[in-house]
Design a protein that fits this description.
The chain is mainly β and 404 residues long. It has 2 domains: 212 residues, no CATH class; 90 residues, Sandwich (Immunoglobulin-like), CATH 2.60.40. It contains 2 helices and 21 strands. The protein starts with a strand and ends with a helix.
Length: 404
Amino acid sequence: MSSNSNCCCGGTSTASPCDTAIAELPRYYPRQLITPDDLTLEQNYFRDRMRRHNRLLHGWGVVCGALVCPATKTNADGTIVLVPYNVVVQTGYILGPYGDEIILDCQRTVDLRTSGVSGVTGDACLDAPDPWCTQVYQTPSSSTNTLYIAVQYKQSMMRPVRVQPAGCGCTDTSCEFSRWHDGYEIGVLSQCPSCTQAPTSSATQGLRPSSRTGQTPVGTNLPAIDLTSNPTCPDCSCGPWVGLAVVTFNQSGNILTIDNCACRRIVTSLSQAYRSCTGLVPTVTSVTPTSLSSGATIWLTATGTGFYCGTKAAFAATDPIQVVQTNVQDSQTLNLPVNVATSATGTVNATLTVTNMDGQSSAAFEQSFTVGTGSAPAPPTNVTAQTHTSSRASRVSQKSSKSD
């Protein structure tokens, strides 16, 4: 990590990554001679697709974190005081206007008298000065000053390696950087980035009002959306900077105010949005058939809604009908083999209750049955009756069919 001063050490390309779209992907085949250009094209193809996806579907701005706070230090006596001219940018995740991911994985201290600091994501969290540049400070002369903290994506070449010589020349033993590393630059600007500034009141008309009393209407920092026409694709004219905060300080460097909202664009993220379920309450609407045979096992079909796997059905303990097993056919059908007491005759009133595995129970369903004597009705058509025969009977049947 390094600090940026006015000696202009290093630099960031001003070319917009979304000015052109890479739509060409290498096709590999056996015995192909693969060159660095082929591999680089493949990387750039997928990188360009991800940038375009971020920019057009998710937008750009602060996703989370990246708050700007006053910098503090602890004196020898244990008291904590503010450091003049210094603010701290906390960790966060930002999508740049070009679709780049900006990951602030370390808290960075920024001196308002410099042009900012730069860093590499994944490096050690140290605010070390740039060894190649002497830091230059510009002390403001006004009694009250206002500056803007912003961040942009920055890519750096790292990890130099010795290139294998191609010949016997003295220049064949040069070094090449072997890695591109994602990073960032936190800048101290004189004005808020143009596309981060809050729109005028006329741009917020036609927005959906807030459903919560006392809160800001939803989308007050967004222009009105016309749902009757096709939207236009956003351009890349806003530049690479994402505003974070507005800082005011006096001539002595004392931080007066830090506004983390006035120059900040926030991306609407669904990472904190979720829902949970409380279980579906089952219902029973009918039970068939209503004609039963005493002392027999009868198949009943219960219809309703909200039946899950593992659903259990039961008649009241005092009823002469008891469920042997609950078979869930689908969310609206239960097949119930029940035992009818031998002593049951005539009209019998029974109460059926269905309970899902999560403990949600249906309301008690009352049904009148007519119990008589005679053969039991056949099982429902959607239940396969299983017939078990002895092994001896099976061998006799097979022998008989062979003799025929």
